[in-house]
Amino acid sequence: MTQVNPTRLQPGSTGAREITQPHFTTRVIGSSDLRVFPVALSGNVFGWTADDPATTSILDTFADGGGNFIDTADSYASGRSELMIGRWMRDRRNRDNIVVATKVGKSRENPGMRAEAIKRSVAASLSRLGTSHIDLLYLHVDDESVDFDETLLAVDELIGEGKVRYFGGSDHTGNRLIQARIACGQMGVAPMVAVQSHYNLLHRKDYETGLAHVAAIQGLGVMPRFALASGFLSGKYRQRADVARNPRGHDALRYMRRRGFKVLHALDEVADEHEASVATIALAWLLNKPGVVAPVVSASSAVQVPELLAAARVQMTRHQSAELDRVSSY
Hints:
eight-stranded parallel β-sheet, 11 helices, TIM Barrel, 11 strands, single chain, three-stranded antiparallel β-sheet
């Protein structure tokens, strides 16, 4: 596997958005010095539908293909996801080559954004991950019952202690991100560098008409979640019988409408032209959007991982991108 340290820019770097390595191109997350492969592997199935052997195989395949960005949360499988990722990094001795993102705010033990809850959550995540620091910490919820100042000061303390390197939002509106940036400036604490948002070919309006503008102004790295629309944009759910065969496919039913099938048809055509999978093209479309750093996607088995990684190598034409924009318009 290619061994690169993804957590720092090369000395003398200009901070350009993309940095080419021998085997793949990495992207910089916002104003941070974190550079990542442009696909983030979600750990949301680890410890749930993916057992230990499956999780290890998925992670190995991802890393062997150049992937270095892993996204999890303290609430995924009640912390088991973090435990499995931590065990894998220890066994592979590759912590320095991995960018670890986790989220706090939804765990049963430490819910919400109170300072003490955040600090306890981070301490627990560090223990489960077996690491001294979290590269990117997301606020998993926008807890409006807690003053932003308290939340932001707590995170800044963790950054000062070296337990967290950078942080971002995961469930915040554009207005709330603006409030957070103002509060950070007034208090002189570290600002957010990233944001996760529900964004894909079939869910565009909320992000593109609101959050996208704020993210661009603040220079936030955008990580689209639900990037494959609950698997529908992988092309594996084309009729209700497909959903019935997969217990995780129920959420794809909402997309089985005229617009959804129009998008699938367009994806099929572009995929044929690139000799790629439908999932690869759906992710490549996202990677063509301004500000997007890395879609967050999960794999239930290692055989699915190569088509996710392949998105970073696809160069769509303007016509192909415009056609996908057209058929998915809202």
